[in-house]
Amino acid sequence: MQGALRQLVNSASRLLSECHSHALSHTHTLDPKFVTQQVIQCAYDIAKGAKVLVTHFHLAIPIDQ
User: Fold this and answer.
1) In which residue ranges of the chain is pLDDT below 50?
2) pLDDT at position 1, please?
3) Is 55 left (phi over 0), alpha (psi -120 to 50) or beta?
4) Spatial CA neighbour of 47 closest among 2, 20, 22, 15
5) Which of 18, 23, 34, 59 is the most buried (most CB within 10 A)?
6) What is the per-residue pLDDT for 63?
7) d(CA 24, CA 16)
8) Locate the ARF GTPase-activating protein GIT1 C-terminal domain: which residues (predicted)?
């Protein structure tokens, strides 16, 4: 679970950094396709970490029948 939390936090920080760097770049020298791919990868990594956490907590909570 620690790994999933770490992945979630690191990916969110990376996404924030990518977006912030691009927003502050006045010349926008980076290729828009590259920036878009980086943002998509960050979002995908966040989703993977969230899925692990949801699965962990879902399995930890007993379901009354």
Assistant:
1) 65
2) 76
3) alpha
4) 15
5) 18
6) 62
7) 12
8) 3-58
